[in-house]
TrEMBL record:
This is FMN reductase. PANTHER family: FMN REDUCTASE (NADPH) (PTHR43408:SF1). Gene3D superfamilies: 3.40.50.360. It comes from Parafrankia irregularis. GO terms for molecular function: oxidoreductase activity. Keywords: Flavoprotein, FMN, Oxidoreductase. Residues 5-146 form the NADPH-dependent FMN reductase-like domain. It comes from the Bacteria. The keyword Transcription regulation does not apply. Pfam families: FMN_red.
């Protein structure tokens, strides 16, 4: 069995943000739940590091990021809330991905917000965008308030109990299909 990989894509303009902290915590939960013969690797793409390459088409670093997203065993897409939705920075990257191009990669949408009024944004705005580009989002997204970050482990325990089985089942079924075809 090849090594499994969980990729976090962080759409915060600020590197090493709270959004990244949440994304990495979700990725760690997903990675720990995926059956594998060896370690499950977690990686992070900070969209802000792609810089001006996001503003045009064909940038090698952006192409590499998209290829990494397509080949991940599981994907965590995290963004802070800007104007009640995902960031324009994240949208610049996701606009580089064609309709259906992710090919069903199991994906967890994650949104970090300053106000509880934005709780639906993860389901109403981020999830449909991810589905449009071919992500498979088999569970509810993760919504975290900035003010509740100290309670993140407990929040993720609750989320994991309700959702991890669906994600790991999808990861396993995709791996089986891949082995059968390969």
């Amino acid at each position: 069995m090849p090594q499994r990989r969980v990729l976090s894509v962080v759409g915060n303009p600020k590197p090493n943000s709270r959004t990244r902290t949440v994304a990495e915590a979700v990725a760690a939960r997903v990675a720990a739940a995926i059956p594998a013969e060896g370690d499950v690797v977690t990686e992070v793409i900070e969209v802000s590091a792609l810089g001006p390459g996001l503003l045009g088409w064909g940038d090698p670093a952006v192409k590499e990021a998209v290829a990494s997203m397509r080949t991940a065993d599981a994907l965590i897409v995290a963004t802070p809330t800007f104007k009640a939705t995902y960031t324009g920075l994240l949208k610049l990257l996701l606009d580089q991905i064609g309709q259906g191009e992710l090919g069903g990669v199991p994906t967890v949408p994650v949104l970090v917000a300053g106000a509880p009024e934005h709780a639906l944004a993860v389901e109403v705005h981020l999830r449909p965008l991810l589905v449009e580009i071919g992500a498979s989002c088999p569970t509810r997204g993760v919504f975290v308030l900035d003010s509740t970050l100290p309670e993140l482990p407990a929040q993720l325990d609750t989320w994991a109990t309700a959702n991890l089985a669906a994600i790991t089942a999808l990861v396993e079924s995709r791996a089986t299909v891949s082995q059968d075809l390969g």
